[in-house]
Automatic annotation (TrEMBL):
It is found in: Cell membrane; Membrane. Coiled coil: none annotated. Belongs to the complex I subunit 1 family. Keywords: Cell membrane, Membrane, NAD, Quinone, Translocase, Transmembrane, Transmembrane helix, Ubiquinone. It catalyses: a quinone + NADH + 5 H(+)(in) = a quinol + NAD(+) + 4 H(+)(out). NDH-1 shuttles electrons from NADH, via FMN and iron-sulfur (Fe-S) centers, to quinones in the respiratory chain. The immediate electron acceptor for the enzyme in this species is believed to be ubiquinone. Couples the redox reaction to proton translocation (for every two electrons transferred, four hydrogen ions are translocated across the cytoplasmic membrane), and thus conserves the redox energy in a proton gradient. This subunit may bind ubiquinone. This is NADH-quinone oxidoreductase subunit H. Its EC number is 7.1.1.-. The chain crosses the membrane at residues 6-27, 80-98, 110-133, 154-175, 181-200, 229-253, 265-286, 298-321. NDH-1 is composed of 14 different subunits. Subunits NuoA, H, J, K, L, M, N constitute the membrane sector of the complex. The keyword Nucleotide-binding does not apply.
């Protein structure tokens, strides 16, 4: 086996380890942050000190539950949906640069197009689950997921296009290399649009109408139990890692730190991603759920005009600089 092949295998193995570890860390952190912010006592007791075993207890609970498939469900599609929801985030992590040089699973020349296209595929898991469950509540949740994807995919793409225009490339490592700190105030509106649209695509509160328990039980996932249900939850946490990592790479300079220590670039990327993940959890416990009409109105009357304005500003600044 050649040294180049070994290098690729090691980098892909590292990406897989990150994929298995970071979503679980986000899940454990969410338990603790929500417990502190909302005064929840339960998650602070499991295992003793600070409830360290809560995530382990959840894993055992999911593993012990019976794997039930509804009698009238499309069995093959029903069983395949959790994997379709989860695996696209692994493919995105492969193209996400952690640091300079070879600190990326695989460099993709059209990185922005690749990651945004693959992230969109993950929503198909929810659509498949809702359609295959033979449950009206699940079907309604799947339809809401589709409507939400259509509304929020456009502002997300427009915001990412603004950064690509500024950097003059659609390669993710190329965008980070072209980054300057004075971009932050200039591109902040695009960053907020991208981050907000990403939260909506992940169906995170306050954009969780497709899984509104007070209306449609748990949306497309109502009929799922055990490990298949756990895979949907893991896909949500993996999506948080991917969204925060992408926001870091596109709008916060990726591996660039205040001291110019590119040798610790991977650490700066992880720190920025962790801060954004905390913001995601903070938003969950801070804001009430939007109504369906409010959710659509925010996308079409607020985020899309802001994203278009950001592209116009980027074009003006590029012309002035040249």
């Amino acid at each position: 086996m050649s040294s180049e092949t070994v290098d690729v295998v090691l980098r892909l193995l590292a990406v897989f380890v990150v994929f298995l570890v970071l979503p679980l860390v986000i899940g454990q952190t969410e338990h603790k942050v929500m417990a502190h912010m909302q005064g929840r006592l339960g998650p602070m007791y499991a295992g003793g000190f600070h409830g360290w075993a809560q995530l382990v207890a959840d894993g055992v609970k999911f593993a012990q539950k019976e794997d039930v498939v509804p009698r009238d469900a499309d069995r093959r599609v029903f069983q395949l949906a959790p994997a379709v929801a989860l695996l696209p985030y692994l493919l995105v992590l492969v193209a996400l640069p952690l640091g300079p040089g070879n600190a990326v699973g695989q460099v993709v020349d059209a990185g922005i197009f690749f990651v945004l296209a693959v992230m969109g595929v993950g929503v198909l898991g929810s659509l498949m689950a809702g359609w295959a469950s033979a449950n009206k509540f699940s079907l309604l949740g799947g339809l809401r997921t589709a409507a939400q994807l259509l509304a929020y995919e456009l502002p997300m793409l427009l915001a990412a296009a603004s950064v690509a225009m500024a950097a003059g490339t659609v390669s993710l490592p190329g965008i980070v290399e072209a980054f300057h700190w004075w971009w932050v105030p200039w591109q902040i509106v695009g960053g907020l649009v991208f981050f907000t649209a990403g939260l909506a695509e992940l169906q995170r509160p306050p954009f969780d109408m497709p899984v509104a328990d007070s209306e449609i039980i748990f949306g497309a996932y109502t009929e799922y139990t055990g490990l298949r249900f756990a895979m949907f939850l893991l896909a949500e946490y993996a999506g948080i890692v991917v969204l925060c990592g992408l926001t870091t790479v596109l709008f916060l300079g990726g591996w660039h730190g205040p001291f110019g220590a590119d040798g610790l670039g991977w650490l700066w990327t992880l720190l920025k991603t962790a801060v954004l993940a905390f913001v995601v959890i903070w938003l969950r416990v801070s804001y009430p759920r939007l109504r369906e009409d409010q959710l659509q109105k925010l996308a079409w009357t607020v985020l899309i005009p802001l994203a278009l304005a950001q592209i116009a500003l980027t074009g003006v600044v590029k012309v002035v600089m040249q």
